[in-house]
Amino acid sequence: MPELTTERTLADVVTEAxxxxxxxxxxxxxxxxxxxxxxxxxCMAQGLDPTVVMDALVGLQPGxxxxxxxMDPAELVDHLEATHxxxxxRELPRLDALLDKVTGVHGARHPELDEIGITFRALRNxxxxxxxxxxxxxxxxxxxxxxxTERPTFxxxxxxxxxxxxxxxxxxxxxxxxxxxxxxxxxxxxxxxCASYRALFAGLADLEADTHLHVHKENNVLFPAxxxxxxxxxxxxR
Length: 238
Hints:
The chain is mostly helical. It folds into two domains: about 10-55, no CATH class; about 70-235, no CATH class. The protein has eight helices and no strands. Helix 5 (about 75-105) packs antiparallel against helix 6 and helix 6 (about 110-145) packs antiparallel against helix 7 (about 160-185). The longest helix has about 40 residues, at about 195-235. It is globular, with a radius of gyration of 19 Å.
């Protein structure tokens, strides 16, 4: 783990040591949409002792698997599609069906399942079109920009425009995930929950963690790199 101080941003810590994501999740620290906050400020806002959080981060090493922080934008969009987009396309329908099953069996004793269902389906209805817009509009623009020999001309004017839309949608997804966490009492199933109930809540916890990391890679790594790349083309063409 690189030198850690309260002045480091949450996003930078996770980019350099992806295992920090699990630590931040455990403390309820938003490192994706809120990743530009300094560690000390984020801890203060949550009523946390920064030294306790930093102690939990000590010794973290770069995680296994591809070094996505070192990828160029074109490589990173391929990685996002192959990992997080594919994960969501598997998990959203699976969790929707599992939610139906659990509600059918336990809904009378646990009426909160109805609100969980409404919130989850609002999230699914947002995320699935969001993935399609990234894959059909934004990501092809990023690939074109990465291979261009002169500044590309885009129908929307600048790649920053669809990026701003995606970031607003990320904020909305984060709000819905936070609501699901609240409604499920931190993804803790009730004592009378069956195996399917436990599997549902475990799946929702995994969905939250994976989506947070997904958004972090886009908001804090991919999008700044793409905007900077376009700005370089703009400067060079003057």
